[in-house]
Amino acid sequence: MNKNFRESFEKTKVAGKIAAGALDEVAKIIKPGVSTEELDKVCYEYINDNKAYSAPLFYRGFPKSCCTSTNHVVCHGIPSDKILKNGDIVNVDVTAFKDGWHGDTSRMFKVGEISIKAEKLISTTYEAMMKAINIVKDGIHLGDIGSTIQTHVEAQGFSVVQDFCGHGIGQTFHKEPNILHYGEKGSGEKITEGMIFTIEPMINLGKYETKTLNDGWTAVTKDKSLSAQFEHTIGVTKDGFEIFTLSN
Ligand code: MF3
Ligand code: CO
Ligand code: CO
Fold first, then answer.
1. For ligand 1, atom 11, which residue shows the shortest CA distance?
2. Which parts of the chain are beta strand (E)?
3. H helices within 62-159, ranges in order?
4. In angstroms, what is the span from residue 116 Cα to ligand 3's centroid?
5. Distance in angstroms between the alpha carbons of the first and the last residue of the chain
6. Are 177 and 189 in contact (CB under 8 A)?
7. In 10 A of CB 41, how many CB atoms?
8. Ligand 2 centroid – CA 95 distance (Å)
9. Phi/psi at 75 (nearest 5 deg)?
10. Which of 74, 94, 104, 179 gets mutated to test ligand 1 (max ligand atoms within 8 A of its CB)?
11. Do you find a cis peptide bond into 177, omega within 30 degrees of 0?
């Protein structure tokens, strides 16, 4: 059966693989002593080499090709000459734009040896994202996604950020619907076959509140506790989902 969303899925997968590949390059070089700007350079070059564009670069004035969010930075950290040190945790978030379509993904990276608490925060955040992805299929409610994440995260004593959410994505970087990472089972609109969106929970070790720094981008936890995030771009099918931002 040749349904008309197939082409959008195929194109998103091409963009998504490029974004994931950029993160694989980051994984090869990240270690204590490396600056976040060096991570940005690797992302920029990988995306460019694959004849794609970085969607964040110049998006609403954002100056770099990826976001690098370290320790208590929740999201939208700007790559700089800041040097990563042993024990840091850093999210790198990449969005590739290829042939008119976007692929958006992020992962956590551990710099040297990290604390047991940080390990737990990272694993819980990843599990929450994957649990939510795994319930996705035609006919579920958006609240089912939020509730799956919130339940898993709060059982560990961590909190779900409410100021930022996942989003529809396609030929536009950010579009409807908003994908909240908290909420009530059975609430919100139903998702349908052919939809493409991100799930990208931001999870804090302490309280959920955030604030944005004077640079207008960097979002941090208000209580300065550690924060973690993972992101995949996925498509909804009749019986399940496809993840477009896998490396292989
Ligand atoms: N990639 C981020 C997201 O997941 C958005 C970054 S916008 C930027 O939606 F301008 F900060 F790069
Ligand atoms: Co996103
Ligand atoms: Co992203």
1. 76
2. 53-54, 67-70, 73-75, 89-98, 101-110, 159-160, 166-168, 175-179, 196-199, 202-204, 210-212, 219-221, 227-229, 232-236, 241-243
3. 116-135, 142-154
4. 26
5. 25
6. yes
7. 17
8. 8
9. -170, 170
10. 104
11. yes
| pLDDT tens-digit profile, the chain (248 residues) | 457 899 999 999 999 999 999 999 999 999 999 999 999 999 999 999 999 999 999 999 999 999 999 999 999 999 999 999 999 999 999 999 999 999 999 999 999 999 999 999 999 999 999 999 999 999 999 999 999 999 999 999 999 999 999 999 999 999 999 999 999 999 999 999 999 999 999 999 999 999 999 999 999 999 999 999 999 999 999 999 999 999 97
Q: Which ligand does the CA of 61 lie closest to?
A: 1
Q: Say how far apart CA 174 and CA 231 lie, in whole Å.
A: 14
**pTM beyond 0.70:** yes
Q: Residue 112 is encoded by which pair of tokens?
A: 């040297």
Report the alpha-carbon distance of residue 103 to residue 221 in Å, rounded. 27
Q: Measured in angstroms, how far is the CA atom of residue 153 from the centroid of ligand 1? A: 23
**Pocket of ligand 1, beta carbon within 6 A:** 56, 59-60, 62, 67, 76, 93, 95, 104, 200, 217, 231
pLDDT (0 to 100) of residue 248:
76
What is the CA(1)–ligand 3 centre distance, in A? Answer: 32
Coil, helix or strand at residue 13: helix
**Closest atom of ligand 1 relative to the 164 alpha carbon:** 9
